[in-house]
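Q: How would the structure tokens look for this protein?
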Amino acid sequence: MRVAAGLTIFGHQVSFLFSRVIEVSKEVEQAVELMELAEIDQIFALEEFEDCVVLRGLDVAHLWKSADLAMVV
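A: Here is the predicted structure in token form.
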């Protein structure tokens, strides 16, 4: 999440996809706050999670295909 936030500093548009179910902890809450501060507006998940938009099959494929660059961290 810090990498994604760092990319926005240099003017890159960043989308973030939670690719597994995450338990909400203090550490996760801090990371989400960092994403909000970095103005990362497109936050997706594969399962219901907080206020994230849930993506399924072809939606995930479209997200990856439309990206200029994809990083898996």
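The longest strand covers residues 15-18.

DSSP finds three helices and three strands in the chain.

Upvote if useful.
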